[in-house]
Design a protein that fits this description.
Elements: H1 3-14, H2 17-23, E1 30-35, H3 43-51, E2 61-66, H4 74-84, E3 88-92, H5 94-103, E4 109-113, E5 133-137, H6 144-154, E6 160-165, H7 172-185, E7 189-194, H8 198-210, E8 215-218, H9 222-226, H10 228-233, E9 239-242
Parallel strand pairs: 1-2, 1-3, 3-4, 4-5, 6-7, 6-8, 8-9
Helix pairs in contact: 1-3, 4-5
Length: 248
């Protein structure tokens, strides 16, 4: 999804907020922002609101909920926003949208994710989403082969590549399959390691060092983004590549 298209998507959705707000008899519409990460909304998000005529604190309020990379917290956070009766929920990335949809069948949900929204049950189909959920999917899982190609150019002698996956993320299987298949086609050996907490990241790197991995590809994941300093700090012998997008 191009930046312009994403702005148009949220901007077009924004026109429904006053209607939902009036239904709630609220003087100011409230946006629920549900993130699997720990970062505040990006400048583009705020620009989208501004272009639609909304400025936080002036004519719109925003309720923020951050899971800080702990996916098991998303259902409870989504439930809080549903009880708050927000006018719309902006959910980033896909796991947040899935949690939001499970909590409400009436509040509009706008998502930005990395997985196939049809496969995970967010929408009926891409052309006609239907229901109360819409958004954009970046399909980051498909970038795995391209990341391997980039690593091959950067480190021509690399033959053993580590793939760091968060098993709690719903894109784990897709990314693993895509990268493993691409690695086989390039004659590379893919060493898959898993981590869903800080200690498991340490254990994963220790395993890659023992296996003499030449480089690392990190799967798209909010938890990995939050731990990016930890990931890039060690070990220096392994070149890092990342399939993550900007903080969600």
């Amino acid at each position: 999804m191009r930046r312009r298209s994403f702005i148009a998507l949220l901007g077009s959705t924004a026109v429904a907020w006053p209607l939902a707000a009036r239904a709630q008899q609220s003087a100011m519409p409230v946006i629920g922002y549900l993130s699997a990460g720990a970062s505040a909304p990006t400048a583009i998000f705020r620009q989208v609101l501004a272009e639609a005529g909304y400025v936080e604190g002036r004519n719109v309020a925003i309720e923020y909920r951050f899971a800080e990379g702990k996916y098991d917290r998303l259902p409870a956070l989504a439930a809080e926003l549903a009880r708050r009766h927000v006018a719309v929920i902006v959910a980033v990335p896909t796991p947040a949208a899935v949690a939001a949809k499970a909590e409400t069948a009436s509040i509009p949900i706008v998502f930005l994710g990395a997985e196939d929204p049809v496969r995970v049950g967010l929408v009926a189909n891409l052309a006609r989403p239907g229901g109360h959920v819409t958004g954009a999917s970046l399909l980051f899982a498909e970038l795995g082969p391209k990341q391997l190609g980039l690593l091959r150019e950067l480190v021509p002698t690399a033959t053993r590549i580590g793939l760091l996956i968060n098993p709690s993320n719903m894109n784990a299987d897709d990314v693993t399959k895509d990268v493993t298949a691409a690695g086989a086609a390039l004659g590379l050996q893919i060493e898959v390691v898993h981590a869903s907490n800080i200690l498991e990241i340490d254990a994963a790197f220790a395993s890659l060092v023992r296996k003499r991995a030449d480089a690392l590809v990190a799967g798209t994941d909010s938890f990995f983004f939050n731990r990016r300093l930890q990931l890039t700090a060690f070990p220096p012998s392994i070149m890092h590549a990342s399939m993550r997008k900007r903080a969600a």
